[in-house]
Amino acid sequence: xxxxxxxxxxxxxxxxxxxxxxxxxxxxxxxxxxxxxxxxxxxxxxxxxxxxxxxxxxxxxxxxxxxxxxxxxxxxxxxxxxxxxxxxxxxxxxxxxxxxxxxxxxxxxxxxxxxxxxxxxxxxxxxxxxxxxxxxxxxxxxxxxxxxxxxxxxxxxxxxxxxxxxxxxxxxxxxxxxxxxxxxxxxxxxxxxxxxxxxxxxxxxxxxxxxxxxxxxxxxxxxxxxxxxxxxxxxxxxxxxxxxxxxxxxxxxxxxxxxxxxxxxxxxxxxxxxxxxxxxxxxxxxxxxxxxxxxxxxxxxxxxxxxxxxxxxxxxxxxxxxxxxxxxxxxxxxxxxxxxxxxxxxxxxxxxxxxxxxxxxxxxxxxxxxxxxxxxxxxxxxxxxxxxxxxxxxxxxxxxxxxxxxxxxxxxxxxxxxxxxxxxxxxxxxxxxxxxxxxxxxxxxxxxxxxxxxxxxxxxxxxxxxxxxxxxxxxxxxxxxxxxxxxxxxxxxxxxxxxxxxxxxxxxxxxxxxxxxxxxxxxxxxxxxxxxxxxxxxxxxxxxxxxxxxxxxxxxxxxxxxxxxxxxxxxxxxxxxxxxxxxxxxxxxxxxxxxxxxxxxxxxxxxxxxxxxxxxxxxxxxxxxxxxxxxxxxxxxxxxxxxxxxxxxxxxxxxxxxxxxxxxxxxxxxxxxxxxxxxxxxxxxxxxxxxxxxxxxxxxxxxxxxxxxxxxxxxxxxxxxxxxxxxxxxxxxxxxxxxxxxxxxxxxxxxxxxxxxxxxxxxxxxxxxxxxxxxxxxxxxxxxxxxxxxxxxxxxxxxxxxxxxxxxxxx
Length: 811
Description:
The longest helix has about 35 residues, at about 320-355. The protein has 25 helices and 23 strands.
């Protein structure tokens, strides 16, 4: 311990003696370690940290999947299927149906929008959570016609009700209905696991939608959470799901043919889609740290050369090689620990920026933060980094010929060739790692630009969207829904600055969709479960003009397409191509609703990308809102030429409130905002990898510049002799540039070989670009080579200004 303390004191004194060197090294390490700690915090919180429930590995999501007709997965379940699953399963301890929900909560004269869930009473015991106050609702309350009760979150209790200690037992207003608060959940409880923290939970059986579909096996709307029994594996549960699926197919061929059930661990279901991107980003920031280590190692090699006389004297006085290595490593570790401490501070600040810039669909974003695992990671990275960049310079510095070193030290001579070779290897590694990172960033940038240039199939400019679901209590009848929508469109169209307005049930680029099967009248019925399906939308007559969706043939809806008129439908080109090849679809009829006559095809419109900009176009059909009204209402408003759609928000909101002051307005966004949200995850990936690649490029350029500058300094005597003997400026430049570019080209070659393998891991993150895109590889290679040439030219030009007389006296 005494020796360690002595080494630490000596190392600290040496670092204080070289403040410039110490500051540069600590900052370089802080950037690398801080970036790694910040990204690891995200990976830890999203991918590694267990869900905050009891025995979370036993929690599963149950999904349906289609074995026929396109193989759609993540199909939600019907109420009867869920009930059969609950009664027949021997591997599942709990089967919990739920809807994500939203409403407003009123406290005094104020109201706010809140999110929550309608679920069965088994939700809380399935997750193994208990309330902070009161109780949860019971199975006796979770029945049709049961009491209106609610469990609220601690956050809602605090902000809306002032932490009222007597809140349990009181009535609050949710939407237009009263509900009795029976419990308050702790702040740590969060389900459903969405970006918005849930604020309330109610029994699902009181939901009118649940009641209306409890006997309809072909109406699927339930998400289902399950807990497997202790000791049951996912494989065993899925084997049972397959058995139950086959049994339901045999019993209910009309609705269940081709439908298979399966379970997925809740954690995997939540984070599976973001795992590849986060691991790629973690790998990218790891490359940055390696490049920083290579730069610091080069600095230490240069510093060791300047301390050669000191080390030789200490050796002559009896210090062994092991002692020299230990001392130099101690200094490296001191630098790494200081860099790690500063890096942790930078990571704390950087996390706030990361969370703010993260896409809305990044799971568990609310849980991102520093914990003991991140602190241990930062400590381990700091120590390993200190060893990584300090060991090679320490070994080189301690390997010397005592007599020669003392003689060279006396006249400040140059280094040995071994140290120069090590420095060259480090530069080659920096360039190779930088090239891999830059190519990865280039692929993501090209992919993102390609995606942005992809047409959604409609004119997204100048459109304002408003999500305003109609109240079931206020507008229970179809005629009432049609009437209020007609008035809504009429009032909105009269707002100054509005060119047109229309209504659709599901907005394009909202991330939502609704697949519905259909058959074609006059054709043989396909086998059960193999009916064609399509996106199903219901719209008002002016929808296509408002959205800028082109009419290819036929006509659009008009005011005459009402309930008492023959039902009509408009199809997309994709649906026409796939189902009416070689035929004229106009006049053909689709069976899409068993309660209505077949719908006649009256028009064909262009294809649109419905769920996300990156998803391919799918078959879609549109029905008239006046013939198939819904309570899900999304108003789309096209601004007049020259008007900003965002500027219409206040006047449109006023028009809605004048029509119905109690009407809920979930959100108002321009279609451009929705388009940006559709690509937010790809933008986030591109931004992070691009930042790290830029940092790597800067470090690599500084690395090669530093090596060449140091080489020029060490060869000042030689250069002076060459100039004295008649060497021309171009000869000196050529000598320095050739040496530097040789290193750069070797690094580029190694980087290209590595990039061809590494970028294949990114294939799932790309859109419209292959992982080996030749243009990206060529552009990045030329760019990095050009930057390396500049980094070599600067010291080369400085070398040409060497005064021969001064250089000859240099030694």
